[in-house]
Amino acid sequence: MNRIRNRLENEEGNVALFVLGLISIMIILFLLILNLAGALIVKEQAMSTSQQAALAATATLYEELPGFILSYEKDLKEFLEEEEAAKDAAEPAEPEVPGDEEAPEKEKEEKTLDELIQEETEKLSGEMADYTLNEIRNEAIDRILAKELDKGLGNGLLKKRMSEELEFAWIKSMKESARNTILANGGELEGAVMTVFDDGQIVVESSHEAGAIAYNGFFAGIQKNLYKSSKGPEVKFVQKIPGWEGRTYSLE
Fold first, then answer.
1. Which of 251, 236, 245, 193 is nearest to 62 (CA)?
2. Cβ distance 55 to 180 under 8 Å?
3. In whole angstroms, what is the distance from residue 154 CA to residue 75 CA?
4. Which of 85, 128, 147, 180 is 20–30 Å from 35 (CA)?
5. pTM (2 decimals)?
6. Average confidence score pLDDT of the chain
């Protein structure tokens, strides 16, 4: 009798240990699934943050352009006037022919960039009916500046001025916008970078911190930054400015 009782007690104890072990394994597997799901969520957050940062940096670039265009046109006008004056000084004036009463035709005045952009905006309003006015105007600015860069007026004055602005002002503003957006979305600045320009697009890589849910020592202390990168919309005119393809800047 005692032997039977002892055997039953041992079996009950073994079953209890087995059940406890099985429950522990199930908890660990459940925590593993939770941690994997959490990592996927954090990756999505990192993707969203990098995308918003790239969009913010691109928007900042476009915000800088209206004031720059006015300044450029003033400089171009002065350059062309000086060039014309130098040409007139170097060439002797043609003598007037007596009896020639035919008045020279008045040269057609060139439209300003602002006028061209306004015309292009109105034209695109029909083609891009589903877009916001700001998006349409940005597209118009992009197209007109790309054409102007191709003209190379003033010995490539526009390319020179844009390159200078990127070097000393615009990149700084774009970095600040991307950095602020990352922080506002709860992202991490450690290891974050901004690349200009990848096929005319601003690329931002940033991360969010993922912490594991621990149980009984399993997964304890596991923390990692999960990185994702995203591109902003294509900016056509920057592809015509040499030397700016693929430059990378730290956002830390």
1. 236
2. no
3. 9
4. 180
5. 0.81
6. 87
Judge whether 164 and 144 are in contact, CB under 8 Å.
Answer: no
Which segments of the chain have a pLDDT < 70?
1-13, 92-109, 215, 218
Q: Reading across the β-sheet that carries 188-198, which strands appear in turn? A: 223-231, 201-211, 188-198, 247-250
d(CA 35, CA 214): 9
Give the span between the Cα atoms of 241 and 145, in whole angstroms: 11
Q: How far apart are CA 180 and CA 178, in angstroms?
A: 6
SS (H, E, C) the chain: CHHHHHHHHHHHHHHHHHHHHHHHHHHHHHHHHHHHHHHHHHHHHHHHHHHHHHHHHHHHHHHHHHHHHHHHHHHHHHHHHHHHHHHHHHCCCCCCCCCCCCCCCCCCCCCCHHHHHHHHHHHHHHHCCCCCHHHHHHHHHHHHHHHHHHHCHHHHHHHHHHHHHHHHHHHHHHHHHHHHHHHHCCCEEEEEEEEEEECCEEEEEEEEEEECCCECCECCCCEEEEEEEEECCCCCHHHHCCCCCCEEEECC
Distance CA(53)–CA(179), nearest Å, equals 7
Angle between helices 2-90 and 153-165 (to 10 degrees): 150
